Amino acid sequence: MSNYGRNAIAAMGERLDSLLKELERFGVENDARTTDHEEKLLNITAETGAFLTLLVQAVKARRVLEIGTSNGYSTLWLADAVRRLGGGVLTVEVVADKAEIARANFERAELLPWIQLHLGDAGEFLRGQDEASQDFLFLDSDREEYVTWWPDLRRILSPGGLIIVDNATSHAVELESFLRLVQDTPGYTTSLVPLGNGELLVLKENQ
Questions:
Q1: Which residues pair with 139 in a beta bridge?
Q2: How far apart are CA 64 and CA 89, in angstroms?
Q3: Which residue, among 84, 87, 47, 32, has the nearest Cα to 65 in the 3D structure?
Q4: Is 191:163 a contact under the CB 8 Å cutoff?
Q5: C-alpha angle with apex 161: 156 to 162, nearest 5 degrees?
Q6: Secondary structure of residue 161 in the 3-state scheme
Q7: Whole-angstrom Cα distance, residue 99 to residue 92?
Q8: Global confidence as pTM
Q9: Neighbouring C-beta atoms of residue 55, cutoff 10 Å
Q10: Residues 6+ apart with CB under 8 A from 46
Q11: What are phi and psi of 178, to 5 degrees?
Q12: Contact 102, 88 (CB under 8 A)
């Protein structure tokens, strides 16, 4: 690789790191000053972002789907990981204002070429996706909907693929029904990682 190429990669890394820290601070401050749930950003923690990056690269996931974009903080972690593998992130957000902010953040990070942002209802979106079309799913959305989405989540996840569910310990009660449903479904292995707000890992076994 040329010195120009190395310098460009280093510059992208520094720019992304700076933006992630800025968004992390802003997310904490924003959520502390508003009581309106729709206005809260509810970002993942930085350690969760690093964990997602590691997982994407470990399983070599080139097709990543995120449900719940918010301001794009978690999407940037995912996109940085998947671009190194020559893949892309598809992210779904239902709130137009948040999607607009997220797109601006993707442009600032210069990661927009690796991100496709869809504005709309996640359940409807999932129903329209092809079978085994995604290698890695990250769920950070309406937890009450996960049970309803489960048939489509199973269908679109490729064999050997991973589902990561955020807030698995911070909102464990809300995820009880979904967890039981997953554990009662043959061909799936689960593990709870007590990191950040808790991450539920669901592995679809190769069948």
A1: 67, 165
A2: 5
A3: 87
A4: no
A5: 100
A6: strand
A7: 9
A8: 0.90
A9: 19
A10: 20, 24
A11: -65, -45
A12: no
Joined together, the tokens standing for residue 36 give 């309106």
Which H or E run includes 90? Answer: strand 88-93
* pLDDT tens-digit series, residues 54-100: 999 999 999 999 999 999 999 999 999 999 999 999 999 999 999 99
Q: How many CB atoms lie within 10 A of CB 73?
A: 24
Enter the tokens of residue 112. Answer: 């927009």
C-alpha–C-alpha distance, residues 60 and 40, integer Å: 32
What's the pLDDT tens digit per position in 117-164? Answer: 999 999 999 999 999 999 999 999 999 999 999 999 999 999 999 999
Tell me the domain boundaries of the chain.
43-204
User: Class assignment of domain 43-204?
Assistant: alpha beta
DSSP assignment string, 11-51: HHHHHHHHHHHHHHHHHHHHHHH---GGG---PPPHHHHHH
Q: Which DSSP letter does residue 197 get?
A: T
Which amino acid type is present at position 46? Answer: A
